[in-house]
Write a structure and sequence with these properties.
The complex is a heterodimer of chains A (about 130) and B (about 300). Chain A is mainly α and about 130 residues long. Chain A is built from five helices and three strands, in the order H-E-H-H-E-E-H-H. Chain B is built from eleven helices and 15 strands. Classes of the chains: A mainly alpha (about 130), B alpha/beta (about 300). Chains A and B meet through helix 1 of A and strand 12, strand 14 and strand 15 of B.
Chain lengths: ~130, ~300
């Protein structure tokens, strides 16, 4: 069991909540490559939500190369090597970086403080790139 | 005068072998809207009956406005209105007739309240009870309670049989009219969303015992679910941990305060991932009550709570 937490009243769609939590755990190393994930049906039952919602989260995660599905075997954490080009990976994070800079400006936080904050988050993930 | 409306100490009621209420210690602050939650058969109704002196405690004490339940019965009933769960109404009467009949029994009866709430709650006052829907019967009972102008309203499942619009009407009335006057509302319910909407205090009872009593604000602001990934994480309960559930490599904690420090502590103890989430009342209730089931820690047992506690 993954003990994922979904909250229908949080404002964030359920599939995104699932996606974010699995992404976080893979990044932090709590879920490792080749770890098996529960089937769509089982996770849906565990969370008491519609299986289509879980299926959508899995599809998105698979598209991003975070998990992989092996026919007839199940769903696994992928080996962590993103298939995407570096330029594409950078492009994806662009809007988040822009938003971070803008919010930091309005909150009167310095560039240094923001960099330290991000470093702190990397540290929480276990210092892996 | 005390600032608690209801106070019990070690309140216990035993029926044969069943400990319906077991060492219950409640504090209901004056002026609060207190949601009393529990599954069917948890002891909610028995507690209410004990408070009103309709049943005698086996041991322990109960005080309402500092008056001793069972001994100062009349004084308590003068200041308390009670809506019981099983509503017995006379089929051949109309709400209007019943209101006239009932008014004679209560010294503080308010005709203005009757007129106002009959209108607000949209009650067909001239229709015989035999022709009234369950929802309308419930509303009449709430009306009778409101008209008594009581300092304390004790409502056992006030929303039973009401549709969502009716529930909303009743909640509005209870909130606006009652708490504005500094009255205390003590009500039991299964409708967690409705409790979340109006209660400022909650108490959770299971198998006759009080599992938790807290300000709803504190639950929303400070209580957190913390899910940690990693082997060998502690499941021992410290003061701030309400529950801890381990499932394979992940452990889920519910804590009452200090989430950040708690998360940092878990990381130091080797947790690879730590996530924090706020709780809504439904999740909180399921977690707390389910913890009492012996099968919580098994894989299949996790589902048992849903159907019954949401009925």
């Amino acid at each position: 069991m993954l003990l994922l937490q979904v909250n229908p009243s949080s404002g964030l769609p359920l599939y995104l909540q699932i996606e974010a939590q699995i992404k976080h755990r893979v990044a932090a190393g709590a879920l490792k490559p080749d770890d098996q994930l529960p089937s769509v049906r089982r996770l849906a039952t565990e969370l008491a939500i519609n299986p289509n919602t879980v299926a959508r989260a899995y599809q998105e995660l698979e598209r991003d190369g975070i998990i992989r599905t092996a026919q007839g075997e199940g769903t696994f954490v992928a080996d962590g090597m993103s298939q995407l080009l570096k330029s594409e990976r950078l492009r994806r994070l662009g809007p988040l970086a822009a938003q971070l800079a803008v919010e930091a400006h309005h909150l009167r936080l310095s560039e240094k403080e923001i960099v330290e904050m991000v470093q702190e988050e990397f540290k929480k993930l276990g210092g892996k790139p | 005068m005390t600032d608690t409306a209801i106070e019990t100490g070690g309140l216990t009621k035993v029926y044969g072998r069943l400990r319906a209420v077991d060492e219950l210690t409640l504090h209901v602050p004056r002026g609060s809207v207190y949601g009393f939650l529990g599954r069917n058969g948890a002891g909610k109704t028995t507690t209410m009956r004990l408070l009103l002196g309709l049943a005698r405690p086996t041991s322990g004490t109960a005080h309402v406005f500092g008056l001793e339940a069972g001994r100062q019965q009349l004084e308590i009933l003068e200041r308390t209105a009670f809506v019981a769960e099983g509503k017995v109404l006379y089929d051949y009467m109309t709400p209007l007739e019943l209101v006239r009949f009932a008014s004679g029994f209560y010294p503080r009866w308010s005709r203005e309240a009757v007129e106002k709430y009959a209108r607000v709650l949209d009650i067909p006052m001239r229709q015989k009870f035999s022709k009234l829907s369950n929802g309308n019967r419930t509303k009449v009972c709430v009306l009778l309670a409101l008209a008594q102008n009581a300092d304390l309203l004790v409502l056992d499942e006030p929303s039973t049989g009401l549709d969502p619009v009716m529930i909303d009407d009743v909640l509005r009335v209870l909130l606006d009219e009652q708490t504005a006057e500094g009255r205390t509302v003590f009500f039991s319910s299964h409708q967690l969303a409705e409790v979340e909407q109006i209660a400022d205090w909650i108490g959770i009872i299971d198998q006759g015992r009080l599992l938790l009593e807290a300000r709803l604000e504190d639950i929303k602001n400070d209580y957190r679910v913390v899910v940690a990934g990693g082997n060998g994480l502690p499941v021992a309960l410290s003061a701030q941990v309400v529950s801890a559930v381990k499932a394979e490599r992940f452990t889920r904690y519910i804590i009452t305060s200090g989430a950040e420090a708690f998360a940092a502590g878990l990381r130091q103890q080797g947790a690879a991932s730590v996530e924090m989430f706020p709780l809504n009342l439904r999740e909180f209730f399921l977690e707390i009550v389910r913890k009492e089931d012996t099968c919580t820690f098994g894989k299949s047992g996790a589902k048992t709570g849903y159907a019954s506690s949401l009925s």
